[in-house]
Specification:
- The chain is globular.
- The protein contains 9 helices and 4 strands; from the N terminus they run H-H-H-H-H-H-H-H-E-E-E-E-H.
- Strand 3 and strand 4 form a beta hairpin.
- It has a single domain, classed as Up-down Bundle (Ferritin), CATH 1.20.1260.
- The chain is about 55% helix and about 5% strand.
- It starts with about 25 loop residues before the first helix and ends with a helix.
- By secondary structure, it is mainly alpha-helical.
C-alpha cells in the first residue's frame, strides 16, 4: 500500500476532511486511500460472488446462509466506500455499485469471475474473509475514527460468518472428494493471500503505522492470518506449505511470488496467477 491510487497529485500536508481529520504525511494519506479501496473492493466482490450461489448452494441451509452473507458483505462495502470521498485526495477510486463501474479493481484475482464450484465458495470464505478481518483488526483502533468505527462494526458482524466458514471447511473436507477439491482451490488461492498483506517493511504500511492509522506491520498481519487459518485447514487434512518455528514463535512459508505481485491493487497478475 505504498503506491498512489489513481490520483497522482499530492495534497498539502495537514489538509483534512470535513470532520477535521488530519494526515500530516502525503504518503500515509495515499496509503490510507488505497487501504480503504482494497477493503471495500474485497468485501464487495466477495459478497457478489457469494450472491451468485444464494439459490444454488448444495443445501437449503447454505442457500440461506449465502443470502445472509451477501447482504452483510455488500452492506459493509457500502459503509466503507464513502470514506474515499471524505479524504482530501484528488480523484479517489469510486465506490462500486456494479462490477463494471470502475475498470481498476483492488480485489484479489480469485474473485474476478463468478466462482465455478461450491469448493471455490468455501475457499473464498475461508481464506479471503479472514484476511480482510486481520486488516480490519489493524485499523480497529486507528486515529481515523470513521474507519475505526466501521472496522469495529464489521468485525462484530463477522463473528457468525467466520464460524460458518469454518464449519463449511469441516463439512467439505469430511469426504475425500470434497477435501481434494478444496485442496485444489487452496493451492490456487493461498499464495495470493499471503502476498496480499504486502512485503515486509512496505513503505505504505510503515507510513500508516507512523501516523497511528494502522497498528500492525505486514508480517504481523501475515502471521496473525496464518495463526487463524492454518490450524483449521491442517486439522481437516488440507496441506498448507507452511511450518511452525516454535523457537521463534512464527510461521515459515518460503519464497512468495513477488515478481507477479501488483502492489497497488493488492493482487497477483491474473494471467500469471491462474497459469
Amino acid at each position: 500500500m505504498s503506491e498512489r491510487p489513481e490520483g497522482t497529485e499530492a495534497v498539502a500536508p495537514g489538509r483534512g476532511a470535513e470532520n477535521e481529520f488530519l494526515v500530516e504525511s502525503d504518503d500515509a494519506l495515499a496509503a490510507l486511500v488505497n487501504l480503504i479501496a482494497v477493503i471495500g473492493d474485497n468485501v464487495y466482490f466477495l459478497g457478489r460472488r457469494v450472491s451468485e450461489w444464494a439459490d444454488a448452494g448444495p443445501l437449503l441451509e447454505s442457500t440461506a446462509a449465502c443470502a445472509a452473507i451477501t447482504q452483510d458483505k455488500l452492506g459493509q462495502s457500502r459503509a466503507i466506500y464513502p470514506l474515499l470521498e471524505e479524504l482530501p485526495w484528488p480523484n479517489p477510486p469510486t465506490g462500486l455499485q456494479g462490477e463494471v463501474d470502475r475498470a481498476r479493481r483492488y480485489s484479489v484475482s480469485f474473485l474476478d469471475e463468478p466462482l465455478p464450484s461450491w469448493s471455490n465458495v468455501v475457499a473464498a470464505l475461508a481464506l479471503v474473509g479472514p484476511a480482510v478481518n486481520v486488516v480490519l483488526e489493524s485499523v480497529e483502533h486507528s486515529r481515523y475514527e470513521a474507519l475505526a468505527r466501521r472496522a469495529h462494526r464489521i468485525l462484530d458482524e463477522e463473528r457468525l460468518t467466520s464460524a460458518y466458514a469454518e464449519s463449511l471447511v469441516r463439512q467439505i473436507a469430511y469426504e475425500d472428494r470434497g477435501r481434494a477439491l478444496l485442496q485444489e482451490r487452496v493451492n490456487d488461492l493461498f499464495p495470493e493471500m499471503l502476498c496480499w498483506f504486502g512485503p515486509s517493511g512496505e513503505d505504505g504500511i510503515e507510513a500508516l503505522r507512523a501516523e497511528g492509522l494502522a497498528s500492525m506491520s505486514n508480517e504481523e498481519m501475515r502471521q496473525r492470518y496464518l495463526d487463524r487459518i492454518v490450524p483449521l485447514l491442517k486439522g481437516c487434512g488440507v496441506e498448507i506449505p507452511v511450518e511452525r518455528n516454535e523457537s521463534e514463535g512464527r510461521w515459515e512459508y518460503g519464497e512468495l511470488p513477488w515478481n507477479e505481485w501488483n502492489q497497488l491493487q493488492r493482487r497477483l497478475e491474473r494471467s500469471k496467477a491462474t497459469a
